[in-house]
Amino acid sequence: MTNAAIDIVSVTDAPWHDVQRVFGTRGDPSSCWCQYFKMSTEEWKTASRETCEPLLKQQVKELDPAPGMIAYLEGEPVGWCAVEPRPNYGRLDRTRVISGSPEASDDPSVWSVTCFVVRVGFRKRGIGRALLGGAIEHARRGGARLVEGYPVDPSQRAKVTSAELYYGIVSQFEAHGFREVSRPTPDRAVMQLELRV
């Protein structure tokens, strides 16, 4: 955990070159750009940085509210969290990870946190936790009734790679008051936070 200030801003308030620094040029984030849950299986088969980065850039310009948050540590862009109304993630309903959610998939008052990216060299400093806090407030301002996440439970696996943690981890969600509503698999949870009655 770091004692330095972590600032969380809407991606619309971040220069695009800061977003590019967070997503990087290597690894899964550099090719996905948080488009996996927005594309069909066929579209995803041919997806690349060249197709996904412009899609996120267009979504940042056109979607209101914005599709995510950027974290800054002492002015350096270090992380990303995707959070939007659940109907924006068409592929999410076709994955096992969401099974057990009691919410209707077309309810725009339910927002999903689908992805975290923290740059190498800045991990284990509380950035993911800070991003989740920013995502909750972003959803609240956007009119969300409920925020839902699909984190990994590292205590249920012998080994978890950093690439598998892009959903976040259970303890991170628990720290913000989320409650578990189902376990699609022993090491994955569906967790929810009610924002208003």
From TrEMBL:
Domain of life assignment: Bacteria
Pfam families, A to Z: Acetyltransf_1 (PF00583)
Record's keyword terms, sorted: Transferase
Ranges of residues in domain N-acetyltransferase: 23-196
Keyword Transmembrane assigned: no
GO MF entries: acyltransferase activity, transferring groups other than amino-acyl groups
InterPro entries (UniProt xref): Acyl_CoA_acyltransferase, GNAT_dom
Protein name (record): N-acetyltransferase
